[in-house]
Design goal:
229 residues; alpha/beta; Rossmann fold; two-stranded antiparallel sheet; elongated
Length: 229
C-alpha cells in the first residue's frame, strides 16, 4: 500500500532531519499505527529506550509528564501519541505541543505553571521528536499552526489499491479459516470497501463472527456495521 510506504519514508525524514514532528491523519482502521510501530522497530528503536508509545485517554498534565520523561530516553527521544484526537483540541495540551515543537533562540521550551506539588519541574527544554496518529477530525485554525510545524500526512487511500492489498496481504492473516471459506467471506464483504468509512477493522469483525457462527455471521455483521454510502 502506498500510504504504508509513505509513512515509512516520512518517519525516516523525521528522524534524520531537523524536523520535529510527524502528524498522520486518516480514517480509522487503515493500519497506520501498525505501520508506525513496525517502522521504528525495524529501524532498531526500542520502546522504553529510544521511544515511548501512548494511546487512549490522556490529560494535558499527563502529556506534560510524557514530554518531560522523554529526557530519560536515548536519541531520537521519540514520543508516539496514538488516537488522542480530543487531546490536541484541548488548549492546554495544544500549547504544550506548540512549545515542544517551536524553536525560540535554538530551544524548544515546554512550561506548565501549576500549584500542584507533584510538578517539580515547571519548565524544560524539549529535545525529542513527536509522532501523532489521529483519525478524521476537523482541522480548526487553532490546529493549523501545529500541523504546519512539521510533516502533516493526510492519508487518502485508493479504494482499488486497498482491495488489492486485502486480497494479496491481509486475507492470508486469517489462516485459521480455510482458503475457500476465507474467499467466501471476502466476496460478501468486498463491496463495502468502496464506502467512505470502510476500515480493516470491519473485515476483522466479519472473520471473528464467521469463526463464531458460520451460518449466521453475515447477519451478525450487517446488524453492527455503520456503513455510509
Amino acid at each position: 500500500m502506498e500510504h504504508i510506504i509513505l509513512i515509512e519514508k516520512y518517519i525516516s525524514v523525521l528522524l534524520e532531519s531537523k524536523i520535529h514532528s510527524l502528524i498522520i491523519k486518516s480514517a480509522p482502521g487503515l493500519g497506520k499505527t501498525t505501520a508506525v510501530l513496525d517502522t521504528v522497530k525495524r529501524m532498531g528503536l526500542v520502546e522504553g529506550r529510544h521511544f515511548m508509545f501512548y494511546t487512549g485517554y490522556m490529560t494535558p498534565l499527563k502529556m506534560y509528564e510524557a514530554l518531560l520523561m522523554s529526557r530519560t530516553l536515548e536519541n531520537p527521544k521519540l514520543l508516539i501519541f496514538d488516537d488522542l484526537d480530543n487531546l490536541i483540541k484541548n488548549k492546554t495540551s495544544l500549547a504544550l505541543l506548540k512549545g515542544a515543537l517551536s524553536e525560540a533562540r535554538g530551544k524548544r521550551v515546554v512550561s506548565y505553571e501549576s500549584n500542584l506539588k507533584s510538578i517539580e519541574t515547571k519548565s524544560f527544554d524539549f529535545e525529542g521528536k513527536v509522532i501523532m496518529i489521529i483519525n478524521d477530525i476537523n482541522i480548526s485554525k487553532d490546529l493549523e499552526p501545529l500541523f504546519d510545524r512539521g510533516i502533516f500526512y493526510n492519508v487518502e487511500v485508493d479504494k482499488d489499491l486497498l482491495t488489492k492489498h486485502i486480497e494479496t496481504d491481509v486475507l492470508n492473516k486469517y489462516d485459521s479459516v480455510q482458503p475457500k471459506e476465507r474467499l467466501a467471506v471476502w466476496i460478501k464483504i468486498k463491496r463495502f470497501v468502496q464506502y467512505p468509512n470502510f476500515s480493516l477493522r470491519m473485515l476483522d469483525k466479519a472473520f471473528q463472527f464467521y469463526k463464531h457462527d458460520k451460518e449466521n455471521w453475515y447477519n451478525m455483521f450487517m446488524k453492527i456495521i455503520n456503513i455510509k454510502k
